[in-house]
Design a protein that fits this description.
Layout (H helix, E strand, L loop, with lengths): L18 H23 L6 E5 L1 H7 L10 E5 L6 H4 L1 H10 L9 H11 L5 E6 L7 H9 L7 E5 L9 H8 L6 H24 L1
Parallel strand pairs: 1-2, 2-3, 3-4
Length: 203
């Protein structure tokens, strides 16, 4: 994306149980970055939000409901319970006396998306052999909202296909990915950039 002259702001985090808190922290970081970039360039750039797995959930739970963005690209949406996401947790949690579920939980997350997430333009992407993907659940929640324009795209690959693609190529060169995976990454980049550019032209 950066090679296409798009400004990229990536937020790093350690996954925790309070996803509502992390969503607020991610949104605050995005807002601060956008403000600094706009001041530096002297114009208002409207972002396309991109999330992978838990990152999708954090964008969907952002306090602004997805406003002030052109769209969101949701890759490999994951909304499983804590015990499903961390199998060992179900065994250890009772003896350790720790919280055993994410906040909000899976059902509450979908309810919050349907009620409070306001962005109509979403590109939901599923990779074919991804065993952790719950994009269909997300699409159903999005489609139940008035005025929804979300689109669904299926691509080849698995849950880790989009992860660290640029880092791998930066460290290992062109042979970091086999040709088929490289094509999928290329299609993914094309889809995300076209999503943003298409909506930008309509403004």
């Amino acid at each position: 994306l950066a090679a296409r002259q798009l400004a990229v702001h990536a937020w790093s985090y350690v996954p925790g149980f309070d996803h509502q808190l992390q969503a607020r922290e991610a949104w605050q970081a995005l807002r601060a970055c956008r403000s600094a970039l706009n001041q530096r360039l002297g114009k208002d750039l409207v972002p396309v939000r991109v999330g992978h797995s838990l990152g999708c959930k954090l964008h969907l739970l952002a306090p602004d409901g997805g406003r002030n963005s052109l769209a969101m690209a949701a890759l490999s949406f994951n909304n499983f319970t804590a015990e499903r996401s961390i199998p060992l947790l179900g065994t250890l949690a009772p003896s350790l006396g720790v919280v055993t579920e994410f906040s909000p939980g899976p059902e509450e997350t979908l309810r919050l998306i349907e009620r409070y997430y306001l962005q109509p333009n979403n590109l939901v992407i599923r990779f074919g052999t991804d065993q952790l993907d719950q994009s269909q659940d997300l699409m159903q929640a999005l489609n139940r909202r008035s005025g929804d324009q979300s689109q669904f795209v299926a691509m080849k690959g698995d849950h880790l296909t989009p992860a660290s693609a640029g880092l791998r190529q930066g460290l290992l060169g062109d042979w970091a990915d086999d040709p088929s995976r490289a094509r999928v990454i290329g299609n993914l980049i094309e889809s995300i950039s076209n999503l943003g550019l298409g909506l930008e032209r309509q403004r």
